[in-house]
Automatic annotation (TrEMBL):
NCBIfam families: YbhB/YbcL family Raf kinase inhibitor-like protein. This is Phospholipid-binding protein. InterPro entries: PEBP (IPR008914), PEBP-like_sf (IPR036610), YbhB_YbcL/LppC-like (IPR005247). The lineage of its organism: Bacteria, Pseudomonadati, Pseudomonadota, Betaproteobacteria, Burkholderiales. CDD domains: PEBP_bact_arch. Pfam families: PBP (PF01161).
Amino acid sequence: MKVWSDSFADNAAMDAQFAFGKPDAQSHVALSQNKNPHLTWSDVPAGTRSFVVICTDSDVPSQGDDVNKEGCEVPADLPRVDFYHWVLVDVPASVSEIPAASHSNHVTPRGKFGPDALDGMRHGVNDYTAWFAGDEGMKGDYYGYDGPCPPWNDTIVHHYHFTVYALDIARVPLEGRFGGDDVLAAIKPHVLGSGSVTGTYTLNPKVA
């Protein structure tokens, strides 16, 4: 499968309009437009009955000791883990494109509604759900797309992988609230093919 975006080139920087956070000279970071980027795909395997779209940041610090702290930097050699930014399932086989800003175009404190999405699709929760769990003003279930907001003091650029999976089933066998790990486990025996496009983003002017 081939996957691409009109919103950014593969392995190139994403614009701040597609991010949760944007650089701010006074406070390091401010809320951004949080639009989902445009995605489209082709060369779909025969027998495809639906698609799943998942976006992960593969560069999230495995420890938060230095994250967003004045006078500190997140070292480049710190082990990194994945962070789910978007989990979209039950995309009809007739669909080959997701327009920009069609699933998200602003930051929603406490998270967007879900799991129901457009045209019978469903959203899973992304990892801002856990990130904001201790914040009284922001905690909630974050369904759908919420874009990049890497630590403003990270010494590496983060990579955001938008992967489209073609499945041999019309509906992912999960109900209610689910996340990225749940979806990947559920679809494993049903994947006919996949493709991805990667965008980059940083809030650290020293590495931009």
